[in-house]
Amino acid sequence: MARILVVDDAVFARMKCVRLLAEQGFNVDEAKNGAEAIEMYKMHRPDAVLLDITMPDMDGLAALKEIIDVDPEAKVAMVSAMGQRAMVTEALELGARDFVMKPFDTSRLLQAVQKLLS
C-alpha cells in the first residue's frame, strides 16, 4: 500500500489524519514541522505528502520548496485553514498538486490522497 507523510504541528489534526489513512490501509509517517517533514521525506520517499501551511520553525511553504528541490516529482497536497488563500495559491505555483481546507472533511481528504496517487 502507498506510504503517506502527514505533516501538521497540531497534534489532534495530525492524529485524526493518521488514523483515517491507516484505517484505509495506507502506511503513514508523521512529522510535526517543516524541518522534520524534509528529513522524513528524504528518509522514506513517501508516495504522497499532506503538508500543513502554518507551522512553527519552518512553515509548509518553505518545506514544500525544499521537498520539491529534493524531488521535483513529489506529490504534495497542502492543508490550510480558511483565510490562507494567498498561501494556497503560492503553494500551487511552487508545485503542490492539491489542497484541503481545515477542519478537513474525511471524504475530501481521501479524495485528495487518491488524486495525488493517480
Structural account:
- Helix 4 links the parallel strand 4 and strand 5 (98-102).
- The chain contains 5 helices and 5 strands.
- Helix 2 runs parallel beside helix 3 and helix 3 runs parallel beside helix 4 (85-94).
- The mean pLDDT is 93.
- It has helices at residues 11-23, 34-44, 60-70, 85-94, 106-117, and strands at residues 3-7, 27-31, 48-52, 76-81, 98-102.
- The chain has 118 residues and is an alpha/beta fold.
- Helices cover 48% and strands 22% of the residues.
Rg on CA atoms, Å: 12 Å
Arithmetic mean pLDDT: 93
What is the CATH first-level class name? Alpha Beta
**What coarse outline follows from CA principal-axis ratios?**
globular
The CATH architecture assignment turns out to be 3-Layer(aba) Sandwich
Instruction: Specify the helix fraction band.
Output: 40-55%
CATH topology tier name: Rossmann fold
Outline the biggest β-sheet: 5 strands, parallel
Spatial order of the strands forming the largest sheet = 2-1-3-4-5
- Briefly note the structural class of the backbone: alpha/beta
State the helix count: 5
Q: What is the total tally of β strands?
A: 5
Count the domains.
1
String of helices and strands: EHEHEHEHEH
**N-to-C terminal Cα separation, in Å?**
13 Å
Which percent range describes the beta-strand content?
Answer: 15-25%
Spans with pLDDT under 50 lasting ≥5 residues? none
CATH superfamily: Response regulator
